[in-house]
Amino acid sequence: xxxxxxxxxxxxxxxxxxxxxxxxxxxxxxxxxxxxxxxxxxxxxxxxxxxxxxxxxxxxxxxxxxxxxxxxxxxxxxxxxxxxxxxxxxxxxxxxxxxxxxxxxxxxxxxxxxxxxxxxxxxxxxxxxxxxxxxxxxxxxxxxxxxxxxxxxxxxxxxxxxxxxxxxxxxxx
Amino acid sequence: xxxxxxxxxxxxxxxxxxxxxxxxxxxxxxxxxxxxxxxxxxxxxxxxxxxxxxxxxxxxxxxxxxxxxxxxxxxxxxxxxxxxxxxxxxxxxxxxxxxxxxxxxxxxxxxxxxxxxxxxxxxxxxxxxxxxxxxxxxxxxxxxxxxxxxxxxxxxxxxxxxxxxxxxxxxxxxxxxxxxx
Lengths: 173, 181
Fold this sequence. Notes:
The complex is a heterodimer. By secondary structure, chain A is of the alpha/beta class.
């Protein structure tokens, strides 16, 4: 009986350690978006500064980098220069769009004045656009191909290399 | 002059191509993504008043707050959770059913957003393993009880026969007067 108890105990321990080992190798924040491979949810939001309405569908025909961010988010400050410089460099081939939620327009405007802007920044007042895109925490960046299908999503601050790699996917598909 | 028709046709082709590439018209006022894009038109009855409030709490309790640690949307004060609860309320008021609302959030966030995992795929283990563990536990207890019940009845152990008098015990007996009997 002692051997049976030992065997059952060992089995349970091995199972728990195995599951922990497998799970510890994963980033709990990195959940693949179910929207990948689907047409991006359509929206039209107010642009900061101009007040004009800009819709994601009007950019069909070229890849879109859709970045959800907020001024209170530290990692968003970190990635902002990467996005601005990339938009300045690739602006003719790729459309960059920023969507800000849980924020105020004056803070956004001040942020853009201080840190530069190279593409439209839209305000998601009630956070409904962020919810439709399954945004959990900012920053999150979606990559849309020319036909408006979401081909990739990146959670967290994006580097220049990651931006290029995901844009390649958006341009190929 | 003979080239004119060709030029006109070419211009028409250019115009048609340009028209084909013209982006979709932009709505005059802001429009957020609508649940209908995901789950179609409402299939239920629009709710109002107390029924709406009660149902909102019930459905929000089934959704995980994506920015919290294991909290339901109904229980969280995070702005994201508050926005999600407002949206649940709005969808119920428009006549969306619980399944449609959960489906809408699942299409955006994946099954991660559902606090009650669906009975499908690997998720079945979450539902079945506790039941299997409980059945196994009961089986082990019953098995052990039966085994104990069937075993030979142990006879009460006979009092040990003192063959050699312990000097210390003899001294104690003397003191209590037992040794004088």
